[in-house]
Amino acid sequence: MRPSFDVDAVVLDIEGTTSATGFVVDVLYPYSRSRFGALLAERGDDPEVRRAVAQVRELLGEPDADPVRVEKALNEWLDGDVKATPLKTLQGLIWSEGFARGDLVSHFYDDVVPVLRRWHSAGVRLHVYSSGSVAAQRAWFASSPDGDLLPLVDGLYDTENAGPKQEPESYRRIAAATGTRAGRLLFLSDRPGELDAARAAGWHAVGIRRVGEPYYEQGVGDHAQAGSFDEIEIIGGTGGGAGASTSGSTT
User: Fold this and answer.
1) Cβ-count burial of 214 within 10 angstroms (0-12 exposed, 13-18 middle, 19+ buried)?
2) CA torsion, ordered 208, 211, 212, 216, to nearest 10 deg
3) Are 16 and 208 in contact, with CB atoms under 8 Å apart?
């Protein structure tokens, strides 16, 4: 049965949902790994880099960790797929530069962009909630094979401005930031723990199951599921279109 929802806004995960996890792991991760050292050396005085390095030291419990130790920690977290906020911040800075230079072009599954455009045209507001930083999300949507998709998106949320993706409170923060009642929000993700958290916050949730993705075999528990975006029907929307603000709301 085709999942159908009367909602005002859809919140999108990226990896495994709009885009292939394999692209992130095989292309973006090595790209950032090869540039951590240069970023720390060349931009160590930038406020955002300095703040991220301080967070790395705090997580390590090593307040005097030098750049070599910080880089080692970043690579260890990358190997372990640890969703550490400072790792995601520094990756986002590196990826943003790569997208801006044309070194990188993001990936979207073929069904995603046409459906996002259709929902946007129908007045459904679109937001993104990913463990990747807001900077990385912005670069990702601005540098798609279909051109700049940022005009489709109202808000960008990550683990820093919203919180961990498997905690219901993070979804409550996003609802408050978007000014949307929980029951009028739909979250799309491939990860059962994230879907559980969204539902616990009062949201609707659909598990996206794509063949070849890491969570495909595990399934999405008792959540509604879809193999592609065009299997999901949205019958709501406010008719107000999407705004141009893509910075996300800090909380």
Assistant:
1) middle
2) 50
3) yes
Cβ atoms of 161 and 178 closer than 8 Å: no
At 20, list the tokens: 């292939």
Q: What is the pTM of this model?
A: 0.85
| Eight-class DSSP state of 15 | B
Q: Are strands 4-5 and 185-189 parallel, antiparallel or unpaired?
A: unpaired
Query: Tokens 């008719």 correspond to what residue?
Result: 239
Query: Could you read off the pLDDT of 13-34 as tens digits, one per residue?
Result: 999 999 999 999 999 999 999 9
**Both structure tokens of 54:** 């301080």
List of residues 6+ apart from 50 with CB closer than 8 A: 44
Mean pLDDT of 123-148: 95
How far, in Å, CA of 113 to CA of 238, rounded? 20
Amino acid at position 82, single letter = V
pLDDT at 126 over 70: yes
pLDDT at 3: 83
Q: What percent of the chain is predicted at pLDDT more than 90?
A: 88
User: Amino acid identity, residue 90?
Assistant: L
Residue 175 has which token pair? 């609802």
Partner residues linked to 234 by β-bridges: 5
Q: Binning pLDDT at 50, 70 and 90, where does residue 237 land?
A: low
Report strand pairing: 9-12 vs 4-5.
unpaired
3-state secondary structure of 17: coil
- The residues, ordered by sequence, that sit 6+ positions from 136 with a Cβ below 8 Å of its Cβ are 88, 91, 92, 95, 96, 130
- pLDDT classification of 211: cutoffs 50, 70, 90: very high
Q: DSSP label at 158? A: -
Closest-CA residue to 129 (of 152, 146, 153): 153
